[in-house]
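re: that chain from earlier
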Amino acid sequence: MFAGATLFLLGISTGGSAAQSNTRVYLFRGFAEIFSTGMDQLAADLRKAGIDARVHSYVSWSSVVAGAAADYAEGRVKKIIVVGHSMGAGSVTATTMELGKKGVPVRLAITIDGLKRRPASGSVIRFVNYYIANGGGGQIVRGAGFRGSLANVNVDAIKGISHLNIDSNPAVQSMIKSEIRSAL
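^ sequence. v structure.
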């Protein structure tokens, strides 16, 4: 009972554990491995909820693609979710594009204030982009062949938010957890 109550407070349902057991969340940090510590907190919260969540450097996206494609092909993973902040957001778009080329669907892709505006592509069911319009981030557009749903969420109105803290901001973390919960 206590564990369930804790997970409820985290904003992640403990129901549907079968869906959680075949889900993997790949989180990409931004530049230099010292930024994007919100990805570590998010992964810890997801793991507490029984979800396999792994944090990676933004430069390791190609090895993530290889591992995710193999795990999907062998049936170890049925639902793939990718999340990235800053330069890690670029890794999300590269990952979804390459997984799409391999015929691997992505349940949910989330970018958090990416530095470059790359189009949504691949076989993504839902793509969500959180950005600070006044901070350099911007909206993501549909790439050629993208058929999933796309949402651009401007978080400028959150007091004190910046590119360096958007990934660890409690309101943004809550929105991300809600999206992940819906994808399960």
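The CA atoms of residues 125 and 184 lie 12 Å apart.
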